[in-house]
Design brief:
The structure is a single chain. It contains 27 helices and 19 strands. The strands form 4 sheets. An 8-stranded mixed β-sheet has the order 12-11-10-13-14-15-16-17, sandwiched between helices. It has a 6-stranded mixed β-sheet with strand order 1-2-3-4-6-9, with helices on both faces. Strand 2, helix 1 (28-43) and strand 3 form a beta-alpha-beta unit. It starts with a strand and ends in a 6-residue tail after the last helix. With 675 residues, it is an alpha/beta fold. The protein has 3 domains: 5-258, 2-enoyl-CoA Hydratase, Chain A, domain 1; 292-471, NAD(P)-binding Rossmann-like Domain (Rossmann fold); 495-580, N-(1-d-carboxylethyl)-l-norvaline Dehydrogenase, domain 2 (Orthogonal Bundle), CATH 1.10.1040. Bound molecules: (S)-3-Hydroxyhexanoyl-CoA (3H9). (S)-3-Hydroxyhexanoyl-CoA binds at residues 22-23, 25, 58, 61-66, 77, 98, 100-102, 105, 124-125, 128, 130, 132-134, 136, 270, 273. Residues 473-557 form the 3-hydroxyacyl-CoA dehydrogenase C-terminal domain.
């Protein structure tokens, strides 16, 4: 097998070059090649310095994550980094693209670092439930200082080259297009200075920064194991001799890599990328060109959807029925952008550039030049059909007609046009300019290139898109339904809103079902007839308990929106319970899990079986990015696999639920949704 690593001699400098597409992951062959390259340099007396660089789009983006579940192959990355550091000839890392994880650790093994201005360096292992396991937690505090080290390791956020220069993580900036040449020149300069092993440097900075950082971020890290392990390792660097620190880091790394959380987070890393792949699309299918997007409806949803495109530099025509609604909608969009600018997330000129791409109008006919039109009006099939019928007459041939419906039948909507092949669903999640998830709904007649275009566009606007089939609520909302239903029944049987919510929050959700209802509005979907009271929600809505916006819902709220259990709500629940002839009983936390979360898995199994999701990992992606399912539990289907599907089935059967055949099969064969 040819090595992905080659060497090039430039008089007295040996350049070691890795070319391992797509991201130069440090797989076994690369590690063997790096090790051999250093040995070659040491064995040759005429070589005085070494440069390590990569071909292709990036410097090493880290260890090869696919190797983590395979038997180890020598030399391991920590050994390779040690070998580089031990070189008696100066070794220079020449960085472009992203030096991440093990890639960043390779640069720390090198004695000097030079990078192009666009390069980024980081230790994102924490996002995979890990820590830098090749000496990163011990070398970073010595090279870049404690403060930067703890921040980089525990958050995984990379730093740009300019910042890296400021904190001493790199020594010099190269020209954007002259890295190879500049690195060799830099290497020659460093010959006189000789090697500068990171392990010999004193740890820089104030140890107190570690505790301060941990305190400020405690909430953000709730439930996660890896951030604390990263923090502990950086702290160890401040008190242990280097070798002992390395041993401590190794021990912590192995603990994490054997754990469920890291397996879950690595699963999501690949799941997110897998979700972009569409089954049954021929390799020669090409996406359509999208220069202008039309959005119908300038309400919260339409405005949020439009902002995604404007921010990505795509022109948008937004249509409303009345001038005041149009002005209000576009005004809110501007205000949102200005708020981002005030927080330093955008420059004022970027606000103007985005708003400059927006064309507000009252005339549907103005959508004639749009390549994609997204309808975001309220959920009513007749209204949607009427709009799509009109679009069919107005829009140019080949334009994609999308609906942002959360529940309705895309095939029925498509049938109101003469071009069902151009119709699909693009279900954004609220707030649409913030939430990462997009369900792209594939109708029975949706053309492959239309689907591919929507998926590609999603990536362009920074969304994680998942293909869903046509069914009530698609993937996410369909699974939400049994959860919400059971949560309500649990109240009638004796649980309180606070108990159900606590169980969900302790599980790792950002909030429980009743906190969510209060935030979204208890009146959503209410028929607005105070005399018609069919369930607890109707009763709450009828007495003005609409949630946070009216200061009361399932909970009472103070002026700072702090919730407290409500006597009135409890009375309403008790009345309903009595009317239904139920005797209240003690409900265990485990029962809440079984009835609200196991039921979701059951529905997920049905969705898979019916082909409404392409794969189990797509369902996991939907729940992580659309509903805040804790990433360290890997999404509902991955979680079911780790719980054991036999346990899930037993839990469901206890409460008399019908079991989805796929779930039953997996339970019987000890199988998994995710392989
Ligand atoms: C580590 O380093 C541990 C060490 O500390 C300790 C060791 C002892 N391995 O994201 P993209 C694949 S842990 C294997 O679409 P982009 C990816 O799956 C690692 N494969 O590109 C995809 O495959 P496919 C720490 C990897 O341009 C393809 O490459 N490092 C790896 O949007 C393209 O990826 C990280 O966590 C990998 N390390 O973004 C960095 N990385 O085409 C992880 C990518 O089959 N990587 N692939 O779907 C990234 O963040 C992004 O890939 C990157 C490029 C920013 C580099």
């Amino acid at each position: 097998m040819t090595s992905p690593v080659t060497t090039e001699r430039h008089d007295d400098v040996l350049v070691i070059i890795s070319n391992n597409p797509p991201v130069n992951a440090l797989g076994a062959n690369v590690r063997i090649g790096l090790d051999a390259g250093i040995r070659e340099a040491l064995a040759d007396e005429s070589i005085k310095a070494v440069v390590i660089r990569c071909d292709g789009r990036t410097f090493f983006a880290g260890a090869d994550i696919t190797e983590f579940t395979k038997p180890p192959v020598e030399p391991g990355l920590p050994d390779v980094v040690n070998t580089i550091e031990a070189s008696t000839k100066p070794v220079i890392a020449a960085i472009h693209g992203t030096a991440l994880g093990g890639g960043c650790e390779v640069t720390l093994g090198c004695h000097y670092r030079i990078a192009v201005p666009s390069a980024k360096m980081g230790t994102p292992e924490v996002k995979l439930g890990l820590l830098p396991g090749a000496g990163g937690t011990q070398r970073l505090p010595r090279v870049a200082g404690i403060e930067a080290a703890v921040e980089m390791c525990a958050t995984g956020t990379p730093v740009g080259a300019k910042k890296a220069l400021e904190i001493g993580l790199i020594d010099r900036l190269a020209g954007e297009d002259s890295l190879a040449k500049d690195a060799i020149a830099f290497a020659r300069e460093m010959i006189a200075k000789g090697p500068r092993p990171s392990r010999n440097l004193p740890v820089k900075g104030d140890v107190a920064a570690i505790a301060a950082f941990a305190k400020v971020n405690a909430r953000k890290f709730r439930g996660f194991e890896a951030p604390a392990a990263n923090i502990t390792c950086v702290e160890a660097a401040t008190r242990l001799p280097f070798e002992e620190g390395l041993a401590f880091e190794r021990e912590q790394f192995f603990k994490l890599i054997m754990g469920v959380q890291s397996a879950a987070q690595r699963h999501i890393f690949f799941a997110e990328r897998q979700a972009q792949k569409i089954d049954g699309i021929a390799p020669d299918v090409k996406p359509r060109t999208i220069n202008r997007v039309g959005v119908i409806g300038a309400g919260t949803m339409g405005g949020g959807i439009s902002m995604n495109f404007l921010s990505a530099g795509v022109a948008v025509t937004i249509v409303e029925m009345k001038q005041d609604a149009l002005d209000k909608g576009t005004g809110i969009m501007r205000k949102n952008y200005e708020a981002s600018a005030a927080k330093g997330r955008m420059k004022p000129e970027q606000v103007e550039a985005a708003m400059g791409l927006l064309k507000p109008t009252l005339a549907l006919e103005e959508l004639a030049d749009c390549d994609l039109i997204i309808e975001a009006v309220y959920e009513n099939m007749d209204v949607k059909k009427e709009i799509f019928g009109k679009l069919d007459k107005i829009c140019k041939p080949g334009a994609i007609l999308a609906s942002n419906t959360s529940y309705l039948n895309i095939d029925e909507i498509a049938a109101s046009t003469s071009r069902p092949q151009d119709v699909l669903g693009m279900h954004f999640f609220s707030p649409a300019n913030v939430m990462k998830l997009l369900e792209v709904v594939r109708g029975a007649k949706t053309a492959p290139d239309a689907l591919m275009t929507a998926m590609g566009l999603a990536k362009k606007i920074g969304k994680v898109a998942v293909v869903a089939g046509v069914c009530h609520g698609f993937i996410g909302n369909r699974m939400l339904e049994p959860r919400q239903m059971e949560a309500m029944k649990l109240l009638m049987e004796g649980a309180t809103p606070a108990q159900v919510d606590r169980v969900h929050v302790e599980f790792g959700m950002p909030m429980g079902p009743f906190q969510m209802a209060d935030l979204a509005g208890v009146d959503i979907g209410w028929h607005r007839d105070p005399t018609r009271i069919e369930n607890i929600r109707d009763a709450l809505a009828a007495v003005g308990r609409w949630g946070q916006k009216t200061g009361k819902g399932f909970y009472d709220y103070d002026e700072k929106r702090n919730p407290t259990p409500s006597v009135e709500t409890q009375q309403i629940i008790d009345d309903f319970s009595a009317k239904a002839g139920l005797t209240k009983r003690e409900i265990s936390d485990q029962e809440i899990i079984e009835r609200t979360l196991y039921t979701m898995v059951n529905e997920g199994a049905r969705i898979l079986e019916e082909g409404m999701a392409q794969r189990a990992s797509d369902i996991d992606v939907v729940w992580i990015y659309g509903y805040g399912w804790p990433v360290y539990r890997g999404g509902p289907m991955f979680w079911a696999d780790t719980e054991g599907n036999d346990k899930i089935v037993a839990g469901l059967e206890k409460h008399g639920f019908a079991i989805a055949p796929l779930l039953k099969r997996l339970a019987e064969t000890k199988g998994r949704f995710n392989r």
